[in-house]
Design a protein that fits this description.
elongated
Length: 285
């Protein structure tokens, strides 16, 4: 436990117990405690800004790094150098958690394979031009929950997602059906859907459905996870900022966490590239 936390406990109970005995119990000096009291009476110049950042970290689930926090401060009319924001966040223990990476894995036999049309061109000129899709897993005490999602490269929003306790072709097909509800018929033949070489995406059912909707499939090269980096990227964000920190015990809890986080991600979480949440960009186009 850090000394300042100990001093805070001592201060909270100073009228009930002798300060000298509490300092001995927590193995801190009385001079350090009285110095702590002076800081309370005369807080540091950056204390108010730190408290503002702390409040924002609570509302954004402690997911903002210093770059994204600076963008938020700018939107609040508070202009600060990025290095200043980083220093304050480090000083007051307000840094976000580090993201974990996911390894690529391939399952099943190929039936249909497609060219890598996306070719790592991860920008789109308008909504529903380029989508990326993938499946990841969420570990719970009840077992593994599989998450299938589709992400739009125009604004990085999550267009559709589905979960299931089995990693099946139907999970992918249902995700596509859900996503296509938001796409006008005349725009469908301009839509490119990029995936890895998972067995769901090489299946006959996937081939039939993309043909039915007029979607142009694109596929990563074998064993090259960077070809679908923007799908991998979202799962990394979701797990680091939500799943790994709260560790759902049941399928129901995991589904609620996923629902809540994806809503937050689409509607509230600031993108470093645009300074806006994903759907705010889409609404402004």
């Amino acid at each position: 436990m850090k000394p300042n936390f100990k001093y805070a406990v001592i201060h909270r109970h100073c009228e009930r117990y002798p300060i000298k005995e509490m300092c001995c119990f927590f193995e801190v000096s009385r001079s350090g405690y009285y110095k702590y009291l002076k800081h309370i009476e005369h807080p540091a110049k950056d204390f108010k800004l730190a408290e503002k950042i702390r409040a924002k970290q609570e509302t954004c689930r402690r997911t903002y790094g210093y770059r994204r926090m600076k963008l938020w401060l700018d939107s609040e009319g508070i202009a600060k150098n990025p290095k200043t924001v980083l220093r304050i966040m480090h000083k007051y223990g307000l840094l976000s958690e580090v993201r974990r990476r996911k390894k690529w894995q391939k399952m099943g036999d190929d039936k249909h394979r497609y060219d890598n049309l996306l070719n790592r061109e991860f920008n789109a000129d308008y909504p529903n031009q380029k989508w990326v899709t993938d499946i990841s897993y969420i570990q719970t005490k009840e077992g593994v929950l599989y998450l299938s999602m589709i992400r739009d490269l125009y604004d990085r929003s999550i267009v559709a997602y589905k979960t299931d306790t089995s990693q099946t072709v139907n999970l992918v097909l249902e995700t596509i059906h859900l996503a296509m509800k938001s796409v006008k018929t005349k725009s469908r033949r301009e839509l490119q859907l990029h995936s890895d070489q998972g067995f769901q995406y090489t299946s006959q059912a996937y081939f039939n459905l993309t043909k039915e909707y007029g979607i142009t499939p694109s596929m990563s090269r074998r064993g090259n996870c960077y070809d679908n980096a923007l799908a991998e990227n979202f799962f990394g964000i979701l797990k680091a900022e939500c799943i790994y920190r709260h560790k759902p015990e049941t399928f129901e809890e995991a589904n609620k966490m996923i629902d809540g986080y994806i809503y937050f991600y689409n509607h509230e979480r600031i993108q470093l590239k645009t300074g806006l949440p994903p759907l705010s960009l889409r609404q402004s186009c």
